[in-house]
Amino acid sequence: MFTNRKSGTIHRRRLQLAATSLAAAAFTITGANCGSPSGSVPVPPATGDPVSAQTTALGTILVDDQGRTIYQFANDKNNMSTCAATCAVNWHYVPAPDSLPTSSPGVTGKVGSTTRDDGHRQLTVGGHPLYTFVGDSTPGQTNGQGLNLDGGVWTVVSPAGAPLANPSPAGAATQNAPGY
């Protein structure tokens, strides 16, 4: 049987080429997910403000410093958060900065804070504790709008700090959280 040294070299080169191609494909796929998805709401530039107003298909709503939609929980009363334990898995409180801003872009409600049962400070607007939803995977999404989840209804927040009018998305009164 005849062994060809040239065929061994060709085989090694093919393996190197395949490995290089695979690495390039992985890099391309990873990089492709870094931009804003097609059809999504434009992400506001980082302002350094913990909360600002953003115009969306639902109207003008509040977003955090990363452009994520901010929600309020109907069960929160008297400037106090009632979302803890399993609720806090789906709804992350918006932390209050050490120094509260006197004003934020487009925000007409009073910006304040409340101390949660766990001792952390949570940002409030218009006396409503603020949250983001784990079901919003990119800035500008409003997947938590009108959900009846974790013991109450969740709505996006207007610049005044109140629940946005018409909180339920078309055809959705009660939904379950995504599999996070």
TrEMBL record:
Q: Which InterPro entries match?
A: Lipoprotein_repeat
Q: Which keywords does this chain's UniProt record carry?
A: Lipoprotein, Signal
Give the lineage: Bacteria, Bacillati, Actinomycetota, Actinomycetes, Propionibacteriales
Q: Which named protein is this? A: Putative lipoprotein with Yx(FWY)xxD motif
Could you tell me the superkingdom of the organism this chain comes from?
Answer: Bacteria
Species in which this protein is naturally found: Kribbella steppae
**Cleavable signal peptide:** 1-32
GO biological process terms on file: alkane catabolic process
